[in-house]
Automatic annotation (TrEMBL):
InterPro entries xrefs: Nucleotide-bd_a/b_plait_sf, RBD_domain_sf, RRM_dom, RRM_MRD1_RNA_proc_ribogen
Cellular component per GO, a single term: nucleolus
Domain RRM: residue ranges: 44-121, 234-323, 382-465
Keyword Repeat attached: yes
Biased composition (Basic residues): 589-602, 653-665
Bias-annotated ranges (Gly residues): 642-652
Pfam families in UniProt: RRM_1
Listed name of the protein: GH21568
Polar residues: bias regions: 514-524
Gene: Dgri\GH21568
Biased amino acid composition, Acidic residues: 148-176, 183-204
Length: 665
């Protein structure tokens, strides 16, 4: 055998005299080589910011293909599919990339100014921005803007669709531009995951982007938003806004005058319908002035808008006080009482009202609006009209019902009837409505608030509809003349008139008017005089307390079922037919949902009852006793014992006969 030579390799593959080490893997070298080439190519990678939201891979390839051959184009998107506003462009060589930066940076692409720069890795981007960090006190306050990124850079957009993006999109654009560089990594530690980080769909990057978004939004919430005051003239109040318009439509129309901070349409608190007015706040006063100077060209949904300068709350209060003073005493028709007891569709008062009752209310309201168009009609202060009466009600029953539920005795109770007389209805068939009259307005108001929509009078599905009656002025004058004639025919009234004339003549001459002769107590008896004075004081105090109680009852009687309470001095704002139809549809939806809920509740109750019936506790089995079995056994024994002809004597035991081996049962 030959001895081992030093130059021969050993069994382990290690050469003697050389330090033992791992053999280089050829596949690993190939991988490292590919990664090195890929990193060199990454140096020719560019980031393009502020791209149009209409841009695609083809448009980017056409635009950036002018300065070299493109290997890859990536447009970053959010989770919902919307564009972030930036993209990555990969060239073959660095010279082509530098040429693209020189020619494309700051130039327009699809009507927007584009900014091109080198794409850098996460660590390099973070190291750069650490130096730029400053304390929160020194940083300028950030304000939300409603314009897209191109307006921030001073260049207007060519397409209006791009300007319709919301402020949230702009925040997302800025974050997307900051986070774009994070997708690109040049470090050797993360070489294998570099392509995954450049892709927008990776989970880690999405989480980091969301965290950054939340942090920026929290900072924006913490910082106080400094808004322009109304006194600076930046806010505009717009009238004649279409009822179908939305906030976005109004904002889009107002943007042609300048930068808009917000545009809000005023809506009803209960129903949510538009009031036909809106507030628009501009960033600059010049744009607000342009909006105020706009003429018939300022339209929205084919309706010309009417802009006015917005007023502060103090100015509105002073204007309202002036208007109330000017309008004092002008409401001779008592039009504010027409809205007393009105029930809105989505209010608490409409809860439990049947669809037929609400339809009847809407019909009466529509008739009321048509009747009040006549200027000779006015709303009575002491007379009420009550609808939805049962057909068996007469004047006496109506009076009893009114006195029992209100506590006041009306001096007029009348149920309106047809003139046709039949055997079934000798007085005429009832029309289903009537009238109630009271001495004072306070009593009439308290009676309305106690009777209107009260579910305890006729039932929950058939409630009374009470309102102040509408009178004709000509008919009212005829009634007054009739009353005057009756008074003149009264002899006591004539004597009173003569006494009044004598007082007036004495006042004209300067003499003290003589008081009418009344039976007075004797002056010599002081005790009787004191008693009389006390009685007079007590009666006056009782009258004053009664008036206060009536006023309190009129003001305090306001339950959940009564409806709206009208205030004096308010202008008449009866609802149009369109609004009444909308209210009717809203109430029908509410009634249907309530019926569905009640039906589902009954079904649940029946199911629960069935489950309780099925889930009864198991009862133990009863041991049934067979009373005939012992008697049968007894007779069997007797029969088997008497087979040999012997009789049974006594109550002793019966001897069984011996059985042979051949015996079988």
């Amino acid at each position: 055998m030959k001895p081992l030579i030093d130059t021969e390799p050993s069994a382990n593959g290690n050469v003697p005299g050389i330090k033992s080490g791992k053999r280089r893997n050829p596949f690993n070298t190939q991988r490292l080589k590919e990664e090195k080439e890929r990193r060199q190519k990454k140096r020719a990678r560019l980031i393009v910011r502020n791209i149009s939201y209409k841009s695609t891979d083809e448009t980017l390839r056409e635009h950036f293909g002018q300065w070299g051959t493109l290997e890859d184009v990536q447009i970053l998107k959010r989770g919902d599919g919307k564009l972030v506003g930036c993209a990555f462009v990969q060239y073959e060589t660095i010279n082509q990339a530098t040429k693209a930066i020189a020619h494309a940076n700051g130039k327009e692409m699809l009507g927007r100014k584009v900014f091109v720069d080198w794409a850098i890795g996460k660590d390099e981007y973070a190291a750069k921005h650490l130096k730029d960090d400053e304390p929160a006190d020194k940083k300028p306050k950030v304000e939300l803007k409603e314009e897209t990124g191109d307006e921030e850079n001073g260049v207007g957009s060519a397409d209006e669709d791009e300007d319709e993006e919301k402020p949230e999109m702009e925040i997302g654009d800025e974050v997307g531009n900051d986070s774009v560089a994070e997708h690109d990594d040049d470090d050797e530690e993360e070489e294998e995951d570099d392509e995954a980080e450049a892709d927008d769909g990776s989970d880690d990057d999405e989480k980091k982007d969301k965290k950054e978004l939340k942090a920026k939004l929290e900072n924006l919430k913490q910082e106080k938003h400094i808004s322009n005051d109304v006194q600076q003239g930046c806010t505009v109040f717009i009238k004649n806004v279409p009822f179908d318009a939305e906030d976005a439509d109004l904002r889009k129309v107002c943007r042609k005058f300048g930068v808009v901070n917000y545009a809000i349409i005023n809506r009803e608190s209960v129903s949510g319908h538009s009031k036909g007015t809106a507030f628009v706040k501009f960033k600059a006063k010049e744009s607000a002035d342009l909006c105020l100077q706009a003429g018939t060209e300022f339209t929205l949904l084919n309706d010309v808008l009417d802009p006015h300068p917005a007023l502060s709350r103090d100015e509105i209060k002073t204007k309202q006080t002036k208007d109330s003073k000017d309008d004092a005493g002008k409401d001779s028709r008592n039009l504010y009482l027409a809205r007393e007891g009105l029930i809105m569709a989505n209010s608490k008062a409409a809860d439990g009202v049947s669809a037929s009752d609400m339809a009847r209310r809407h019909e009466l309201e529509q008739v009321k609006t048509q009747v009040l168009k006549n200027l000779n009609r006015f709303v009575s202060r002491n007379r009420l009209s009550i609808h939805n009466l049962p057909l068996n009600y007469d004047n006496e029953k109506l009076k009893q019902m009114a006195t029992s539920y209100t506590g006041f005795r009306p001096h007029e109770c009348r149920v309106m009837r047809e003139q046709k007389v039949t055997p079934e209805h000798p007085q005429g068939k009832s029309k289903g409505f009537g009238f109630l009259s009271f001495d004072t307005h306070q009593r009439a108001l308290a009676a309305l608030r106690k009777l209107n929509n009260n579910p305890t009078i006729f039932g929950t599905q058939h409630r009374p509809i009470v309102a102040f009656s509408i009178e004709d002025r000509a008919v009212h004058r005829i009634k007054e003349k009739r009353n005057e004639r009756s008074k003149q025919n009264n002899p006591t009234y004539k004597s009173k008139l003569e006494q009044r004339k004598e007082r007036r003549e004495q006042q004209r001459k300067g003499q003290k008017p003589t008081k009418p002769t009344t039976i007075a107590p004797q002056n010599d008896n002081k005790v009787k005089l004191q008693k009389h004075i006390k009685k007079l004081e007590a009666s006056r105090a009782a009258k004053a307390e009664g008036k206060k109680q009536q006023q309190q009852m009129a003001s305090d009687v306001q339950g959940d079922y009564v409806g709206t309470a009208a205030k004096p001095g308010t202008s008449l704002r009866m609802r149009s037919k369109k609004k009444i139809m909308e209210q009717a549809s809203e109430h029908m939806k509410r009634v249907k949902t309530e019926k569905r809920k009640q039906k589902n509740k009954k079904i649940r109750e029946t199911h629960l009852a069935e489950r309780k019936a099925n889930n009864r506790p198991k009862q133990g089995r009863k041991n049934e006793k067979d009373d005939l079995r012992p008697l049968i056994n007894k007779y069997k024994n007797m029969i088997s014992g008497n087979e040999g002809g012997g009789g049974v004597t006594g109550g002793g035991k019966v001897k069984k006969p011996k059985r042979t081996k051949w015996f079988t049962d």
